[in-house]
Amino acid sequence: MTPTIVLPLMVGGLYAAGVYLLLDRSLTRVLLGFLLLGNATNLLLLSAGGPAGLAPILGYSDAEEINDPLPQALILTAIVITFGVAAFVLAIIHRSWRLVREEVVGTDEEDRRVAARRAPDADELDPDDLAPDDRIAGHADSLAGDAEELADDVDLPAGSSR
Amino acid sequence: MTEVLAPLPVLLPLLGAAGALLVSGHPAFQRSLSTVVLVAVLAVSVALLLTADAEGASSVSVGGWPVPLGIVLVVDRLSALMLVVASTVALGVLVFAVGQGSADGDEGTPVSIFHPTFLVLVAGVSNAFLAGDLFNLYVGFEILLMASYVLLTLGGTAARIRGGITYVVVSLTSSLLFLAAIGLVYAATGTVNMAQLGVRLGELPEGTQVLLQSMLLIAFGIKAAVFPLSAWLPDSYPTAPAPVTAVFAGLLTKVGVYAIIRTQTLLFPGGALDDLLMWAALATMLIGILGAVAQSDLRRMLSFTLVSHIGYMVFGIALGTAAGLAGAVFYVAHHIAIQTTLFLVAGLVERQGGTTSVHRLGGLARRSPLLAVLFFVPAMNLAGIPPLSGFIGKLGLLQAGVAEGSVLAFALVGGGVVTSLLTLLAVARVWTRAFWRPPSQSPADDTAAAAAMDAGAGRTGAGGGDGEGSPDGRPRTALQDAWRRHTAVATASEPDLPPAAGAVRALRPLPRTMVGATVALVALTVALTGLAGPLYGLADRAATDLVDRTPYLTSVFGTGEIR
User: Region Disordered: which residues (chain A) (predicted)?
Assistant: First the structure.
């Protein structure tokens, strides 16, 4: 059997490009990265099946020369799963665009707030003495394009709806 | 007997999901259908557990294809125990969700998608527990992940979409890694059957083994939220609806832990990466709990304790001894129940107090003593106060660590004790502030505070009620009067302000079904304490099986030689 260099090269290239895109904040690029990674993994599975051979159909090909059918079955399943997930991610992108006119991964405001906090702990302060903006920071409220619309679902800081 | 029963925990919820979709126009029928299906799954799981405990492990070749060609479902003590615990909490959460749904009056809204998706989630979890080959495990993971994406972004608000994106992208990455690992495993061994892999992987060169093992562990570590791979969890879980967060917290990470147990005991029994896992466990425990102490939001705090306590289970797995594994198995069972319960209680707190921010909650113990009890018992259980089951689980793990005797094991024992104490600190802070602080000290609700601000800004009269649509001129009730006396800020500055809408919401009695489901789950966690003897015995036998490996192998291949 002759080893092939094409498949490993393609798998490596697709993985590199996919990881690069996946690290982007833009969701469309993340989706494209995911698709590339999925294809790279499918090629990896294909190469796991060993050297190329005849179609694995009983009575049609010689049993000695057929290809291993199992990885191909696995790839088919994986393709279907990738397809479904990609459709879902597209729906999320669409929804994100409708909501905030952005399709980037948002910042976790609560994380930022906890990280930026200096002593004393906010619990120890009398909330009435604080500026309204400092009282609480319900996370993700920064995303609210229209505060009224989201007021039912998100804990907005006191007074921010005005 | 097992041949008939084993596929049912996967089949029944899937068929139920299809049925629930068909009758989505009739919410009442849909609700009873999904409840009946989950009760049936629970009954089947209990039967499987009793059979597995009495007769040992057994396997089913789905579709009649002989192993290793076809798909195998394997029921041993571990997977049957996981099934029983998982279906129990799933049932509890479903009842809670039904209660919440009817309380919020969302009949007729497209929320009817919740029931089919929830059933698909249960099917995926069951499939992952029963899977006898790696690829079926992958499919199980994908089924439950796909359902969880939908559940996490239910309603599609901005916060949920933001949290959901993090979750989806991280899960996708771990799934791809898992799939690539399966490809490499197949390339190296020529099989994906786990029993066969248990034999063949041992014959590979050591470097290849470590490579495959670390790929699988990273993929499962992301799902289980083990430390360097855990940052996504507190980011995405708290935004979901209360029942969804509860079932995620209870089940999804534990499926990852289950997969780690299988990897470490069945596929790679040599313990090559045990030291690494020990360090990961230590970091998971400490960093997770330090995060929890820093949080002021109840749900985020619980999410961080969830990460932290995954460390205990990984600790038990990394020890690799039968005692350590028994502790880990017991802890998984305990933690599924306890974490789900706590998140459901957090949902009740949110309903009662209008928020989950500890800054703004106050006086809950006076307003709802039952809620206080419902929080206190599982919270103490989580912290590991004797004699509750959390204490028993931690004690078992610490004993196993001391018995192992290495320096690293002792470090982990110390880390486990510190984590337990810090957990106590974190839940005690919520307890004193949210439940016992006099309500007048805190601007207990943002609407009240907003009303106060309006008054301060010179806006007088009836315009103070905000966008919740508080009906002006509605006759005041005694309760609302009592509430106004508490919110001193509002009344002092503007005596004729109408009652804030938030106040009305906060004083609404809790729906009986939601409270009932939570009470049942709290009772279950207490019952785990009473049943700790038999349960720990079962965990012990399961761990012995895991270390021995022969019961699993012979259940799939019979007593003949496995190649």
Answer: 115-138
Least Cα separation, residue B450 to chain A (angstroms): 5
What is the structure's pLDDT at B24? 78
What is the phi/psi pair of residue B274, to 5°?
Answer: -60, -40
Residues B258 and B299 in one domain: no
- Closest partner residue to B162 (CB to CB) among A49, A78, A106 is A106
pLDDT digit string, tens, across residues B10-28: 999 999 999 988 887 787 8
Question: Residue A25 — φ and ψ, nearest 5°?
Answer: -85, -20
Considering the domain architecture, whether residues B231 and B368 belong to the same structural domain is answered as no
Q: Which amino acid is at A58?
A: L
- Would you call B446 and A157 a contact, using CB atoms and an 8 Å cutoff? yes
Residue of chain A whose alpha carbon sits nearest to that of B153: A92
Say if B452 falls within a structural domain: no
Instruction: Set out the domains of chain A in order of their start, with CATH numbers.
Output: 6-50+69-105 (1.10.287.3510)
Lowest-confidence range among A29-38, B210-219, B500-509? Answer: B500-509
Q: Does B556 map to a domain?
A: no
Strand partners, B131: B73
B394 part of a folded domain: yes
Interatomic CA distance for residues B403 and A125, integer angstroms: 46
**Number of A:B CB contacts under 8 A?**
162
> What's the total number of domains in chain B?
2
Q: Which residues from B are below 8 Å from A92, CB to CB?
A: 153, 161, 164-165, 168
B493 and A CB contact within 8 Å: no
Residue B471: cis peptide before it, omega within 30 degrees of 0: no
Interchain pair A44, B467: CB under 8 A:
no
Q: What is the mean pLDDT of chain B?
A: 81
DSSP H or E segment with residue B73: strand B71-75
Instruction: Tell which of B245, B268, B291 closes a domain.
Output: B268
Q: Which residue of B has its CA nearest to A118?
A: B294
Fill in the amino acid letter for B85. V
Is the domain of B341 the same as that of B247? no
Whether residues B305 and B348 share a domain: the answer is: yes
- Residue B135 CA to residue B68 CA, distance in Å, equals 12
B171 and B302 belong to one structural domain = no
pTM: 0.82
Asked if residue B80 lies in contact with residue B545, where contact means CB atoms within 8 angstroms, the answer is no
* Domain co-membership, B513 together with B428: yes
* DSSP label at residue B473: T
CA angle at B433 for the pair B429 and B438, rounded to the nearest 5°: 155
What residues make up the domain containing B209? 1-268
User: Which ranges of B190-320 would DSSP assign to H, the alpha helix?
Assistant: 194-200, 206-224, 232-236, 242-247, 253-262, 274-294, 298-319
Same domain? B62 vs B165: yes
Enter the ipTM: 0.78
* Cβ pair B442:A74 closer than 8 A: no
Residues B395 and B361 in one domain: yes
